[in-house]
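Quick one: co-fold with guanine.
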Amino acid sequence: MSQIIDGKAVSASVKQEVKEEAAKLREEKGLKVGLAVVIVGNNPASRVYVNNKKKACEAVGFQSYEYALDENTTQEQLLDLVNVLNRDDKVNGILVQLPLPKHIDEKTVINAISPDKDVDAFHPVNVGKIMIGDYAFLPCTPAGVMRLIESTGTKIAGKQCVVIGRSNIVGKPMAMLLLHESGTVTVCHSKTQNLKEVCLGADILVVAVGRANFVTGDMIKEGAVVIDVGMNRLDDGKLCGDVEYESAEKKASYITPVPGGVGPMTIAMLMKNTLTAAKQQNGLA
Ligand code: GUN
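Sure, here it is.
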């Protein structure tokens, strides 16, 4: 039987820290932290994420600015908006919700966001900083995972850490953060041949593949810490992770549920990054 890692509780404590610091910035410096959230088109999942980001801004005392653009918005129009936001002092962080419609090149848009306001940490400058361990912003989901691992009291240094998934948003930066904490890190992906054996060696297993119930209990070492980044919608409408929870929780010492594990952390870390951005832009960090 494992202990459940309560992402909602850990995220609430991160948001509380951010809220207290934001209140201090307002009272002592007259500074209201602002986050611009840009959404293009009508992707229903994106709509839910953007609404949650706006709600989180309200909860921690930030000003949110939403730009909901039509599906047919051109790349040039979107780039123009990003440039306006780059120059707007009220806007400390800019988040362009992905995915973008097919006629817009995501890379071009990400590159246009000022690295100082890139609270997703997707800009190549910030990605490069993560690589060398000199980061202004930690990428939100991997940073949330680190905080969850920390909440279990597990020490990462010297441990076998296995990350399944090599996306730019989660897998690659996740591996880097674990490495910076002196974990021995292995990154697995769709071409990995002996996946089960590699997973069985993991003291800490982070799964971010986007396939329902991909990791089963027989792939998990007794006593491992298991973090499930997956969020998959089954045919019956139910949400499930990348880890088959019932079999995995018999082996793991600690495990995240889906929902209620990594999901709430991502938004909490976005708030933290936005606060950091505001402090940096005002010479306070
Ligand atoms: N789409 C799914 N996850 C994310 C995220 O973390 N940031 C942005 N901008 N878009 C996303």
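If it helps, The radius of gyration is 19 Å.
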